[in-house]
Design goal:
alpha/beta, 4-stranded mixed beta sheet, 7 helices, 5-stranded mixed beta sheet
């Protein structure tokens, strides 16, 4: 079940939308944790207040939705995370067949390189051109976006065999650690909404050129492969500059993220 509500950060007082993906309707006993997209601090909250509620953060206007919209901060249940805990390494399961998640229609995935710590992130973002995909193992939206990203990367490699662009995958499922901190610092320095990208669970795709973000899309699934392939051509064009939206459609759909 998927829910969206309004939450106020007890530390900075900012209000933002929060999303929950849970197996059942939340109760007053259920406790969640989220990262404030404004100050990047993590705090706990409850989706429903009890009769003698003393918690500073309780979701308001909670409503069930068909799918999490882009731009919401995705919370995780304290003590567990929905879904599998296996990290995605870019290699499909042995039993996966063509057309299933984890395998492209061509029968195999584009080659990807996992980013596991600060030094690997620095090396990845220093590439002249690179795709960077932010993966989590607890959101179905990330799995759906993964299939779109695979097709985008495969299309680029097929169209530009003489200009290969590496694809890197950063697993941010744990929402903490060395890689998490390094990503937050880099994205913030690039003027990008680190909290939204790293907490959304939607599988953001980032186009990188020599240490800088040229373009990012929070939810690739909302755009589809065709638009993102066109965005890649513009993002990786010789005259592309950091901060320039590569695709007009992407700019409309992600107003905040594609200036």
């Amino acid at each position: 079940m998927t829910f969206v509500g309004r939450l106020q950060c007890p530390r900075c007082g900012s209000a933002f939308r929060v999303g929950l993906s849970v197996p059942r309707r939340p109760t007053p006993a259920d406790e969640f944790e989220v990262l404030c997209p404004i100050n990047a601090s993590r705090f706990r909250f409850r989706a429903i207040g009890g009769p003698a509620e003393s918690w500073a953060a309780v979701v308001a206007e909670l409503e069930e939705v068909a799918a999490l919209p882009a731009g919401v901060a995705v919370a995780a249940a304290v003590g567990k995370r929905p879904g599998r805990t296996r990290r995605w390494t870019g290699r499909p399961p042995r039993a996966a067949a063509a057309g299933e998640p984890g395998r492209s229609a061509g029968g195999g995935l584009p080659r990807v390189t996992p980013v596991r710590d600060r030094s690997e992130l620095v090396a990845a973002t220093a590439q002249p051109r690179a795709f960077l995909f932010l993966w989590v193992n607890w959101a179905v939206h990330a799995r759906n976006s993964r299939a779109v990203v695979e097709e985008v990367v495969a299309s680029w490699q097929a169209e530009h065999p003489d200009q290969p662009v590496p694809c890197f995958v950063a697993d941010v499922s744990d929402q903490c650690g060395e890689l998490w901190d390094a990503l937050a610092e880099w994205l913030t320095a690039e003027g990008r909404p680190a909290g939204q990208l790293m907490m959304s669970g939607a599988g953001p795709l980032i186009w990188v050129r020599s240490g800088h973000v040229v373009l990012h899309v929070p939810a690739p699934l909302q755009h589809g492969p065709a638009k993102l392939v066109a965005a890649s051509r513009s993002a990786f064009a010789p005259d592309a500059v950091p901060g320039a939206a590569a695709d007009p459609a992407a700019r409309r759909d992600s107003r905040v993220d594609c200036p």
